[in-house]
Design brief:
The chain contains 6 helices and 2 strands, in the order H-H-H-H-H-H-E-E. Helix 2 crosses helix 3, helix 4 crosses helix 5 and helix 5 packs across helix 6. The radius of gyration is 24 Å and the shape is elongated. It has a two-stranded antiparallel sheet with strand order 1-2.
């Protein structure tokens, strides 16, 4: 996964990129041109230009890794607490049905953890942790809304059988590309 836990590069990739910047600094000191450095390090000339400008202004420390760009706002322990809250059901939070929507999950996160997520942020976090959206089931003729089946209402549920705990992706329909 390119962005570990949804926040920035992995530690290995940050270290790799910092090593590239250190190599570039050595070559700046030798007077090599940006184009030659970029070609040899296999990076863009614009990146080398930015590195050189930072190096000239603030020295080598300006090119050190600043750490992860961001970290997940809910840690693993908090996500487990969120799953426990979701297991209680939506009715425990005052909603008329048991369906978990992204908006409802967003509300629970804000109330329980005082953390604000966008709807898309909630969706990405839930997918990353192995949850999937189940569309409402179609009802047979004569079947009422209170049939008691778990998938009838739809909503977000813990996925089964996905790779690394993730929800399996739905197969693509031919011609949808």
């Amino acid at each position: 996964m390119r962005y570990a836990q949804g926040g920035g590069l992995t530690a290995e990739r940050r270290e790799f990129r910092e090593r590239l910047r250190r190599k570039a600094v050595e070559r700046f000191a030798r007077g090599e041109t940006n184009a030659v450095i970029a070609r040899d390090l296999r990076v863009s000339v614009r990146s080398v230009q930015r590195w050189r400008k930072s190096w000239e202004r603030d020295g080598t420390r300006a090119l050190a890794s600043k750490g992860p760009a961001s970290r997940p706002r809910l840690g693993p322990a908090q996500f487990r607490q969120l799953e426990a809250e979701l297991a209680r059901g939506a009715a425990a939070y005052g909603w008329a049905d048991q369906r978990w929507t992204l908006e409802r999950i967003q509300t629970v996160i804000a109330r329980r953890f005082q953390v604000v997520y966008t709807i898309q942020g909630v969706r990405k976090m839930m997918r990353r942790h192995g949850w999937a959206y189940v569309p409402p089931a179609r009802r047979a003729a004569g079947q009422g809304p209170g049939d008691g089946s778990a998938g009838a209402a739809g909503g977000w549920v813990r996925a089964e059988g996905g790779r690394n705990g993730r929800a399996p992706r739905a197969p693509r329909s031919p011609g949808c590309e």
